[in-house]
Amino acid sequence: xxxxxxxxxxxxxxxxxxxxxxxxxxxxxxxxxxxxxxxxxxxxxxxxxxxxxxxxxxxxxxxxxxxxxxxxxxxxxxxxxxxxxxxxxxxxxxxxxxxxxxxxxxxxxxxxxxxxxxxxxxxxxxxxxxxxxxxxxxxxxxxxxxxxxxxxxxxxxxxxxxxxxxxxxxxxxxxxxxxxxxxxxxxxxxxxxxxxxxxxxxxxxxxxxxxxxxxxxxxxxxxxxxxxxxxxxxxxxxxxxxxxxxxxxxxxxxxxxxxxxxxxxxxxxxxxxxxxxxxxxxxxxxxxxxxxxxxxxxxxxxxxxxxxxxxxxxxxxxxxxxxxxxxxxxxxxxxxxxxxxxxxxxxxxxxxxxxxxxxxxxxxxxxxxxxxxxxxxxxxxxxxxxxxxxxxxxxxxxxxxxxxxxxxxxxxxxxxxxxxxxxxxxxxxxxxxxxxxxxxxxxxxxxxxxxxxxxxxxxxxxxxxxxxxxxxxxxxxxxxxxxxxxxxxxxxxxxxxxxxxxxxxxxxxxxxxxxxxxxxxxxxxxxxxxxxxxxxxxxxxxxxxxxxxxxxxxxxxxxxxxxxxxxxxxxxxxxxxxxxxxxxxxxxxxxxxxxxxxxxxxxxxxxxxxxxxxxxxxxxxxxxxxxxxxxxxxx
Length: 635
Ligand code: SF4
Known about the structure:
It is a single chain. The longest helix has 22 residues, at about 535-555. This protein is an alpha+beta fold. The strands form 4 sheets. It has a 6-stranded mixed beta sheet with strand order 2-1-6-3-4-5. It is about 40% helix and about 15% strand. A hairpin with a 2-residue loop joins strand 16 and strand 17. It has 2 domains: about 10-205, 4-Layer Sandwich (Aldehyde Ferredoxin Oxidoreductase,  A, domain 1), CATH 3.60.9.10; about 230-515, Orthogonal Bundle (Aldehyde Ferredoxin Oxidoreductase Protein, subunit A, domain 2), CATH 1.10.569.10. Bound molecules: iron/sulfur cluster. Iron/sulfur cluster binds near residues 289, 291, 294 and 510. Iron/sulfur cluster (SF4) binds near residues 75, 292, 293 and 510.
């Protein structure tokens, strides 16, 4: 098989058994790789209805057919499990060098089940695979453990770790790698922690079979050249994702004070330019990336100093906007704390801002929280992060995520618990952005922007390439409020097929999304590497199949799953934006229902948002329909 190693590495940690098997033809042909492999394996192998921390939950690391090859940004790895955050389908993507190392070691996919009897480390050194005791690393920060493991095993190992948050099964614990790259979302780090695995270390030295090595190489060279020639190539890299901060604020999409409003006065102190001025030492990129968007720098604050990769836009939005930290140094320091503790910056920022608002509104007391907490206060962030990760006092509640915490606290706090399905909302406020609101509502892992980013469409009709908008000076002419229109459904669906396709192929999507690197290049690369001729449209068809499979997994795993699980928090339909360009706007519930109706209809789902039998059959998922029917899932 070309492009793949044709090998799945399976480890049962309870039994200590290690085995390999070839990839099933159906998995490769219908689900491509990465996220597609995650979805297929979860549907086929996850025992129905188990807890996310049950040893029988799967922890999957999957590469794609383009991972590890000579082409722009081919270093992405996809992780999956049953989600501790939502109870449904979970996956999370990570850059760096981990996936290529897994592939060079000879494996496309790693599947862990069971639970190790003691804190353990998994070492994959080509064909030699060992489970080793790791008590000495247990309790260490994720960055510290990576450094120590590099010292102990050798620089040529690629290391992925969890921090104390994963060990304590904080529901939004992340996976860490390459001193600042994370698979941050959905609590995949907590699943690894529940398996007693502190780290996975990989050294790979093997080649990957390629269908036409000469043409693949020539096309790779051309691809790097084409990316470098794109307008925006030189402008985009220096600030990375943080470069979008001004634009988001100026269009009133910047989450501020737990999404009470969508505009921050201090944005120039926390934007991409502030990173360049106050923090940055160097750019940092993933494997084979011509546009290194990571910013490595040093931050000094009144409570400490640290070297840190970041902050990226999402961290700026959730800590600089939502928790209102007023300087880029403080945002970067919060970023460092999260990285070392092994916790997702997005969910952490959302949970902390919710707790602060609970105190402001008298829903939680200082006594319950353990001290006074407030916005614009790095000491509040430091205190709550450490409480969460230790699961002490209020931290034990907050470690459960904002949905569960609000359900327990009640007293109206559910209104401003900002999540969908149990996953905290990322960095775009949407009360004047109906398409983006719909994208968040329907994202398969919960409120996540990377599944569909259509904010540009809401703001200016330019929904695939925000770069033009940013370069235009950040000011966009429009006539608010944005109208709720049927087209939103098709824009969201198109984006939900395009962006996640990169998660199946095993490459970064930012070269397409930010620079406009043409999709046809990927189809050509796919052909030269795998020997399979597929148009981009055919690949999008596979992406649609994967999307319907992930929805089916959640329908199977979550009792009562359906339309009500797609609703955003009540704040967005009942409380107008407090200040800024979108002051006064909200999207009433009936318009949210209308958006869902259009979306479900366009997808071929029923009125409850479940794929119909006909739709599953159309997508060559007839076997999935049969399983759902047999198990009594109403389809
Ligand atoms: Fe990694 Fe950024 Fe390059 Fe994508 S653009 S591969 S996230 S460094």
